[in-house]
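Changelog note: in this version the structure field was regenerated for every chain. One regenerated record is shown below for reference.
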Amino acid sequence: MLGARGGWQAFRRCASLPRAQRAVRLRVREALGAREPAGEVKVQGWVRSVRSQKEVLFLHINDGSSLENLQVVADPSLENRDLTFGSAVEVQGKLVKSPHRMQNMELKAETIRVVGPCDTWSFPLKMKERHPLEYVRQFPHLRCRNNTLGSLLRIRSEATAAIHSFFQDNGYVHIHTPIITSNDCEGAGELFQIETPNEARESAEKTHFFNVPAFLTVSGQLHLEVMAGAFTHVFTFGPTFRAENSQSRRHLAEFYMVEAELSFTESLQDIMQVMEDLFKTVTSTVLSKCPRDVELFHKYIAPTQKDRLEQVLKNKFVTISYNEAVEILKQASQTFAFKPEWGSDLQTEHEKYLVKHCGEVPVFVINYPYDLKPFYMRDNEDGPQHTVAAVDLLVPGIGELCGGSLREERLPFLESRLQRLGLADAYQWYLDLRKFGSVPHGGFGMGFERYLQYILGVGNIKDVIPFPRFSHSCLL
């Protein structure tokens, strides 16, 4: 009994002895933003620069949480042959006030451990070199370590969160619309068809995996219309696909779309107001939460974009009709590759001219010809120049950013048009929506990559997505 009591007392004495302080792990962003010095911290990341002097070793490390690097100050004895540009490291030491004006804090290293060495000779990114976007595009597995792409991806992350916040704050329900579909929402025929390896080898009379032809989605709109009939306001945000044989600076085979659908709305103005509010709210959020990342683009990629964007956020978007747009184009002194005519679709050159004509601000073009638009857009019943209640939002340097419309909620109108197109059987379920509690409704879609292109001034859409897919290119 005495032995047991003595053992317990010894245990209590040991437990009361001071323990070695465990290092607190900090992200680079947290370390840079610290207000007070801190003892025993640990930072992990990748070396962006190494500078060895006689009495001191300087490192700059980054972990992706910030555009700015954290300066590490160490004794030269901590240097080793694997401590090079691009290597992954773990640094432990004390966070102290930095004597330099450009940085609030720096890390005084006590230990430096190389977690993963980097062969600098074969590493395609070079220290302190500003690589062109075209160059780093060749290395999709490494380009995220480039400053420009790092900033882009942080901005993309914040913009994604801001879009979700905008819709949730305004009472929208988020819907996961399917990626695999049997519908062609746009009716353009530019779809990727899904086949199993066995189906591809079999004859034309094969049995489909889904019993019907299936495709990668070009839009979640039709599925959103289903959900809007139960939840009133809905949105989706996900990948969409177009089998368009284009390598232009504006097109991708896989891209992300923000789409929304609103029930109980009879006005195209209501749809346009949501478009404008979404754009301005998300952009303001990105500018306030990612100032240094955005500054990189506005300083080195598009020097005039900052002032233009500030003006756009202050002013109301311009609205013109399709008729007015055609007249403006016809009277233009500029020679277009595609002659502007009523009844023809607006080409990119036309869209850019209209934006320029209206003062380099976003422009809504409304009421397009009936025969130009898909079957689901609402008939305006407006006489000889037959139009539908459709809208496109055009922005400087890009052209079309958003497209939307009121949907045709009247069963006889929709049924008649689908029969003329030979689609009545395929879209019987869509007609059912008009039979069972149909309401006036509308919606729109915004190309997320084009949005990023516009606010940052990036010329090529392939540089605003982590892994670009386009015709003849699917790296990784």
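Spot check on this record: Residues 239 and 256 are 4 Å apart (CA to CA). Confidence is low (pLDDT under 50) at residues 13-18.
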